[in-house]
Amino acid sequence: MNRTAYIRFAALLLSIPFLVFSCKTPTEEKEPKRGLIAENAMVVSARGEASRIGVEIMQKGGNAFDAMMATEMALAVTFPFAGNLGGGGFAVYRMANGDIGSIDYREKAPGAAYRDMYLDENGEVIPGLSTKGALASGVPGTIAGIFEAQSKFGKLDPKEILQPVIDLARNGFVVSTQQANRLQGIRDVVREVNGEDTFYGKEYNAGDTIKNIALAETLERIANNGRDEFYKGETAQVLVNHMKEMGGIITLEDLASYEAVWRNPIVFDYKDLRVISMAPPSSGGVTIGQILKMVEPFDLKSMGHNSADYVQVLTEAMRRAYADRNYYLGDPDFVEIPIAELLDDEYLKNRMESFNPEKATLSSDIAEGSVLFAESMETTHYSIMDAEGNALAVTTTLNGAYGSKVYLDELGFFMNNEMDDFSSKAGVPNMFGLIGAEANSIAPGKRMLSSMTPTLVERDGQLWMIVGTPGGSTIITAVAQTILNAYEFDMTMQEAVEAPRFHHQWLPDQILFEENSLDSTLLKILTAKNYLINEGRTPIIGSVDAIMVLPDGKLEGGADPRRENEAAGY
């Protein structure tokens, strides 16, 4: 072997360990997973049809608020599980010029409602009365909300916006496998409440096409006559008559007096992020603010994503925030809420002083801070960004799956069971284990407390993220973790949405992990510190629909695979 050949051979030998290590690196460092990328505008929602119709409206010259009307009504057609005319919701917006605001179209208690309406003669809660049947429904706010927002900021005629939705209802949508399972699961109770011949009392299988002609006709009247059709017109009369026949208490006066309300959103900083979220009667903005501000002093990134230390710190912040939420929060038109005090840095620092990294803090040792609530998993959220730079985070619901199960066959939609979101009796858990307090007691015309947390996030003064999710009491913690996933752990929008989640809500005193998301090592560490673990109690925690504005100005949609969410854009 000559000198030149020897040198080459020696160099090759010396390079082998490096080459072996290099070969392993690409397999360990996975290529980042990204969602749909769009140049101009995007909608991410629970159904592909709704996302595409929202985008179609923007391509026709509409903006985010026009797309909101279209998307919300398309969800009412294709996603009756939570999409609705008979429910309500919240929307947080940021205009292209940086102006921010929010609209509250949460349902309200009817005028005939009263504090103890769900209690028996012994003062005990009557099971099911606030969750099933006509007496469970609050006055719907959805139509008022979308018309209020669109009339203030939209560009198109509502007739033009609603026409593709009307066509969708007439021509039908295809039932998915998930949807067929849900419809079959509630079929018996829908028939029990409404009679055997009710529209959703029929058997629907995956692949079937559902044409909702009654809903198409209702939407057509609303398109022609505006919001007053729902609150004062033929639709209102049919709704009231139907509810009265079933024992409900919503009147024409209740509908005619309903108004959506513009509210100042909750705004707070987390490091160099500016978070804009929903104010009461949503508990979301205050509670997510408390959680993020309590964990801000900790070096979460160095702890590692979903490590034992990370789970413990976040759990203790969640525990304290939910204790405050359940005690202090309610409808701001009825109760005084100390928002500034609850988000005060010194107050939150004091709340975390009892945190011990060596062991769990018992919820029995945590009360509200010295300066309870209710909601189901079956909500839906959608995120919108238009080509002008306007952004909307919108969360809407019937409360439980298919609401009160009352279906208005003449009108084509389900009614909500939002009255269960009030405290039927202080200190008594509702059907979802959440405990209510005086601030959220029932009163005529009052809006029930909510967990819905539509949220916008700015970074370096620019819009960075639009995020929200269904999930009842888990909404707040799912949104907080999605933000932290992207910010602290540099995840893409899709990765941040897909990452495993956990939840703690003060009471019951347990950490809820998603099914098959808890490894044995983490379980061992947490249980050694006296944490109570309830893995897989619900298979999923939330179903996030989010949008991230990338450094080059493009949009990445995060559509959660936990459900059949889908992004659309152009």
From TrEMBL:
Pathway: Sulfur metabolism; glutathione metabolism. Cleaved by autocatalysis into a large and a small subunit. Keywords: Acyltransferase, Glutathione biosynthesis, Hydrolase, Signal, Transferase, Zymogen. Its EC number is 2.3.2.2, 3.4.19.13. The keyword 4Fe-4S does not apply. Coiled coil: none annotated. It comes from the Bacteria. It holds the Pfam family G_glu_transpept. It catalyses: an N-terminal (5-L-glutamyl)-[peptide] + an alpha-amino acid = 5-L-glutamyl amino acid + an N-terminal L-alpha-aminoacyl-[peptide]; an S-substituted glutathione + H2O = an S-substituted L-cysteinylglycine + L-glutamate; glutathione + H2O = L-cysteinylglycine + L-glutamate. Residues 1-22 form the signal peptide. One of its GO terms (molecular function) is leukotriene C4 gamma-glutamyl transferase activity. Belongs to the gamma-glutamyltransferase family. This enzyme consists of two polypeptide chains, which are synthesized in precursor form from a single polypeptide. This is Glutathione hydrolase proenzyme. The lineage of its organism: Bacteria, Pseudomonadati, Bacteroidota, Cytophagia, Cytophagales.
